[in-house]
Amino acid sequence: MLEVNGLTVYYGPLPAVREASLKVEAGQLVGLIGPNGAGKTTLLKAVSGLLKPAAGRVRFDGTDITGWPAERVCELGVVHVPEGRKLFPRLTVLDNLRLGAYLPRARAELGRTLQEVFELFPRLYERRGQLAGTLSGGEQQMLAIGRGLMARPKLLILDEPTLGLSPRLAYELLELVKRLNTERRLTLLVVSQEVMHLLRLADFAFIMETGRITAGAPAAKLVSDPKVRQVYVGL
After folding, report:
1. pLDDT of residue 167 exceeding 60
2. Mean pLDDT, rounded, for 188-196
3. What is the signed CA dihedral for 110, 153, 73, 90, rounded to 10 degrees?
4. Whose CA is closest to 228, among 189, 194, 196, 192?
5. Are residues 140 and 161 in the same domain?
6. Do 65 and 158 fall into the same domain?
7. Is-above-0.85 flag for pTM?
């Protein structure tokens, strides 16, 4: 489904991503892990069209989308839920969700998709008339993911969906992400600080350090890797 080959992305004169390659198969939940500043967010932005790479290729469903603007990438089925949620705080929950269905094919199924989002996140239904800016952090993250789902993606990219949440809420949110993968067969590429829990849920994972993809393996193998456990949980 998604293939990234030799991607290099610059911020100013410095490369933030260096010759990075990864692959996401249809139906997979794939984790991208690494320390802060490793280049994970930059890589995701280059995939979704928010940044233009200096070198390398990005292919989605067999189409070369390298350097495409974000709107065209989204039309093809790649939806990016960015770090920081980026909601419209003065609009209601329902209005924020409706804005996610701006593509013609998504607008045509707006009612059905809304029902699916409310089934996944019942709390959003309860607060559908509430201003987004008055929601708790966990509710805002649910809304950000729900808005992404309104576009009816083939691939959903989640950048730090657990950031700022309590361990309990972070756990619950990742469990919901796994449900999207298993019950709805949605393909996901996820970055999260909850590394070990993400690895327990993911099918495959890549490790990124100083702008490079340094390893890629089945997530179950990385969970039991002593080096990974030492770096991320201190065991």
Report:
1. yes
2. 92
3. 50
4. 196
5. no
6. yes
7. yes
Nearest CA-CA partner of 58 in 26, 27, 20: 20
User: Kind of pairing, strands 14-24 and 29-33?
Assistant: unpaired
Give residue for tokens 């327990």.
200
**Section 35-48 average pLDDT:** 94
Q: Which amino acid is at 228?
A: V
| Residue at a domain's end among 133, 152, 171 | 152
Packing angle of the helix pair 110-120, 167-184 (nearest 10 deg): 130
114: containing domain: 84-152
> Domain total for the chain?
2
Residue 199 has pLDDT above 60, yes or no: yes
Are 146 and 169 in a shared domain? no
Q: DSSP assignment, residue 92?
A: B
Tokens 């490079």 appear where? 212
Report which of 232, 175, 187 is spatially closest to residue 207, judged by C-alpha positions. Answer: 232
